[in-house]
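Hi,

I'm pasting everything inline rather than attaching a file, because the server keeps stripping attachments. The sequence lines come first, and each chain or strand is labelled.
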Amino acid sequence: MRKLISLLMFAAAFGAANAQDKVLRVVPHSNLSILDPIWTTAYMSRNHGYMIYDTLFGTDEKSQIKPQMVESWKLSADKKTWDFTLRKGLAFHDGKPVTGEDVVASLARWGKRDAMGVAMMGFVDKMEATGADSFRISLKEPCGFVLEALGKPSSNVPFIMPKRIAETDAFKQIEEHIGSGPYVFVKEEFKPGDKAVYAKNAKYVPRKEPPSGSAGGKRVYVDRVEWNLALRDAQAQVNALQKGEVDIVEQPSFPLIPGLKKDPNIVVYNYSPVPLQYMARFNHLHKPFDNPQVRQAAMAAFAQEPFLRAQVGVKELYKKCPSMFTCGTPYASSAGSDIQAKSNMKKAQALLKASGYDGTPVVLMKPTDLAAIDKLPDVAAQLLRQAGFKVDLQAMDWQTLVGRRAKKDPPDKGGWNMFLTAWQGPDIWNPIANAALDTRGEASGWFGWGKDDKIVELKSQFMRETDAAKRKKLAEAIQARAFEVATHVPLGEFDAPLAARKNISGHFRQTGNFYWNLKKN
Amino acid sequence: MLTFILRRIAATVPVLLIVAVLVFLVLRLAPGDPAAILAGDAASTEQIARIRTGLGLDRPILAQFGIWIGNVLQGDLGESFYYKTKVATLIGQRLEPTLALSTLTILIAVAVAVPLGVLAAWRFGGWFDRALMGLSVLGFSVPVFVLAYILIYVVSLRLGLLPVQGYQRIGDGFWTFLRHLVLPSVTLSVIYIALIARVTRASVLEALGEDYIRTARAKGLPEIRVLVHHALANAAVPIVTVIGIGIALLIGGVVVTESVYAIPGLGRLTVDAVLARDFPTIQGVILFFSFAYVLINFLIDLSYVFLDPRIRY
Amino acid sequence: MILGNWSVRIGGGALAALVLIALAAPWLGTVDPTLFDAASRDLRPGEAGEITDLDGETMKHVFLMGSDSFGRDVYSRVIYGTRVSLLVGILCALLALSIGIVCGLASGYLRWLDGLLMRFMDGLMAIPAILVAIALVAMWRGSLATVVVAIAIPEIPRVTRLVRSLVLTIREEPYVEAAIALGTPTRKIMFGHILPNCIAPLVVQATYICAFSILVEAILSFLGVGLPPDIPTWGNVMAEGRAQFNDYPHNIFFPGVFLAATVLAVNILGDGLRDTLDPKMAKRV
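And the predicted assembly:
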C-alpha cells in the first residue's frame, strides 16, 4: 500500500512539472472529429486549420482582404496574370521553408473542394511556382474575386500545407498535420471526443500589424491551448467556466448569457464583426414547394421576430435583417425583400389559397441536438399551420438530418420539404459564397436544388465584373430575383458571443474562433 | 476444474458471434448515411457518393459483414468512420475513465450496502429493516440523471465541495482524480446499493435460520462474530452473483452518468458514435462491452470455488 | 387475499391515481402541451403568462409548474407525459412477455429448438440493455413503436428463461405427464396446462419490466434518442430543462418527481404481488 501511495505521489509530482506552463483551456462549440479543413466544411475543422496553418491572405474585421503570408503581389495590365511573393522566414513545423510549390499544390487541392475555389479554378489557366518564395496564377479571362477567394475567412479556407501533404487526393483525408501556423498540433495528446492539444510554435514570425479578423499579426502569449471536447452539456459548460475549471466557452447557450454577464469573474465578448443568419430552405424538387407561389406563401408566413424570440430570446443578441447577404457587409440591401418584410398571416393565407395548394403535408426536419437552431422548426411548424399548411414535423439528430437532406427522393420515400439552419456571416455575404443562391437545379452544389436561369446569368456577370459599384448593383438584382422566386427565407440575424474568465485578455474581432493574441494572467 | 474452464470458454464463443451478427444487422439495416455526415454541411450530393464508395458502403451487406468479421477475428476492430482512428485505440483511450468510474462505484456500493443488509437482517422486521427496504425500492426508482442533477446542485454548486464536471487522469494526481470521480460514482452507486443491500439481507436472513448459526449462538459466540463470520460468509455467493448480473445495469448507468458529468469514457463514445452513425465504433464498443460482461460473469463463476467450499467444478 | 397486502394497496392505489390522471389529462386545467408563446418563456411555477393557439388567438394562462424555454406549460406537459410513460411501460411489458412466453414455451418443450434458442438469448442478454435501446432508436428514428420495441427486446431473454425453467419443472408433474401419455396435442398442453401455472410469476415479472421500461424511456428521451422532443414525455421535459438547470430547476424537478413516484408505485405493487402470488420467489430476494 505504501508503495502505491508513493507511486501516486510521484505521478502527482510529475504531472505538476508542467504546471508553470500557461495553458488556455477552451470549450469549443462542437466536437472535433475531422482534421482536414479542405475535406470538410465543418467549422470545427476550420478552426483547427487556423491553429496550425497559415493563409496567403486574411479578411480583417472590416471585411477587407489583407496580405498574411504574402509580402507583395502584382496584377498584369491585361488583368490575367497575378504574381505573388511570400514573406521571408516562413517555415513549416518540420523546419522546412514554405515555397511557391507548396502554395500551388495547396491551392490546387482546395480548388477541387471549396465552392469559391471551384469557381475560381474555372478562370485559372495555370498556377506555377516562379521561385523559391514566389508563385504565379495565370487566368484565361479576368476574374473579379481572386483575392476574395484566397483570403476567404471561412470554410473551406485555402490553408497552405507542405506539397507532399497537399498532393493527397482531395477526396481522401490528409494523415499528417503539419502547417506553418502559430500553433503545432500535438498529435500524441489528441484524444477524439476528449481533448485536442496545440503547443505554441516558437519559430512563428507574426506580421507587424495588430490582429484583426483573420488578418494581422498572430502573436501567441500562452504555451498551450487545450480544447475540451468532452464537455458538451450547456449548463455544465457554464458551471465549469464560473468555477474556473475552464478559461473560455466558445458558444455559451443563449439563455445562460444574461447570467454570465452578471458574473464579475466573466467577460462576455462578441467577437464576430458580422452576425450569423438563420435560414429556412425549401426543397424545390418536390410538392408542395416545387410551386413558387406556395414558397411565397410560406415566405409571407415567416416573419423573423417569432423565430428570433423563440430561439435566441435575449433581446440584445438578435435583430431582424431584410437581406440575404449578411447585414452590415458590402452587398447587404433590402432589394426585393418586401414580400417577406411587409407581409402577414392574412396575406400568407391568401397566397396559399391562390396557389392551389392541395394539402400535401410539409415534411419539416428538426435537429434535436443542435442547441443553436433546435427551436426554429417548432416555430416554423406553428406558423405554417396557422397559414393553412399541413405539417409533418420530424425530429432527428443533426447527423441524420445532414444525411437526409442530401436525398433527392420524394418526401414520402425518405426525402424532405424543408429544413432550417444558421450560417456564419462570411459564408453568405456575397452571391458566390451563398450556397442557397446556387440555382442550377439538380446540378446545384447545395441541398434544395433551386432552379432559376436568371440568377445563374446574373451571377456569372457578377463573377466577371471588377467594378465595386457595379458588383453591388448586380448583387441587389440577384437578391431581388431570389426573393421573387423564393429560393429560401432569411430569418434574421444573431450574435453568438464567447464567454471567458476575466483573467483572459486580448480578445479581438474575428470571424472564426482564433486563439492568438490572448493573454492569461 | 480445467475442463470446466475450457467448457465455459467454448460456450462464450457462440454468444459473442451472435452478438456480432445482431449488432451488424441492426446497424446496416437502419437508415442514416455516415458518408453524408462526414462530408460536412455544404457538401454536394456527388461528393457524398464518392465518400460512400471510399468507405466501402456501396458493397453488398454480406460482403461488408465478411470483411468486418474476418478482421475482428484477427483482433482488428476496424477504423472509425468519424475519427479516422483505429477503434481499438479509441476504446483504449476511453477505457480508463469508465473503468475508474465502475470500480469506485462498486467499491462504494459494497462498502455501504453489505453492512446495511446485515444490519437489516439482524433486526429483521424492525424499524431499520423496514426503512431500508423502503429506501431501497426508492433507490431503484429514482432515475440516475435526476439524482445526478440534485447532487451537482447541492454538493458542487451550493456547497462548492467538489468539481461540477470532468475527469482527471490518475496520472495527473490522485487527489484531483478522486475529487472528480466521487460525485459520479456516488450517483451511480445508489441503484447498486439498493440491489446489494436487499440481496445481502435476504441471504443473511436465510443463513440465520440455519442450524449451524443456532449452534454458534448456543456456543455463546459474540453476535458480531456470528453475523460476520458465519452468516455473511454464507451470503457471499448470492452477493457476488448479483454484482455480476448488475454489470449490465452498471454499463447502462455509465452511459448516462458520463453524459451528465462530461466524462470522456466509453459510454460517451457510444452515444457520440451512435449519433454520428459511426458503424465500426458502435460495433466495436458493443462487442467490447458484451465481451466484458461475459468475462466478468465467467470470473464470478470461477470465484464461487473460493467463496463456497461446497462448490466444485 | 391480494388486496390484504399493504404493498399492493399502496402501489396499486398510486398507480390507479396515475392512470386516472393520464385519462383525465384534458380536463385537469391543461392546455395543448405543444403550444408555445415565446413571450411566456422561462416562467417560474405559479406565474401567469399567455399562450397562443393554432388559430392565432392569445389567451391568459397560469403556469402551475412554470414554463420551459419555448414558453410551453410544464404542468400540461407533465400531465400529458403520464400517458406516454404508462403506455410505454405497459406496452413494453406486454410485448416482452408475449414474445418471451412463446420463446420460453418453445424452448422448454421442443428439445431440438432449445439449444439454438437459448444460445441466441444468451447473446442478446450479453449486450447491455440501454446500449441496445440507444442503438435501435437512434438508427430507426424515435416513434412510440421503435421505443417500445427497443426497450422490450433486451427484456425478452429474461422472460424466456423464466418461462423455460417453469416449463421444465411443470412438465415433470404427473398431470402433465398423463396428458402427454393420453396423446393431447402439444399446443393444447402448452397453452392449456403449462401456461396457466406460469401466470403468477409472470405477472410479477411484468411489473418489474414495466417499471424498468418507464425508466429507460425517460433515459432515452433525456439522451436525445427517444421520442421526438415535441411529444410531451417526462424525459423530454427534463432534457429540455437540462440546459438551464441552475436557474430553472423546475423543468427537471417536477417531471423527476412524477417519474420516480410512478416507478416507485409499480415497484411496490410488484413487491406486493410477489409476496402474495409467489411466496417462493419472495423468499429468494
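The longest strand of chain C covers residues 47-52.

If the labels don't parse on your end, tell me and I'll reformat.
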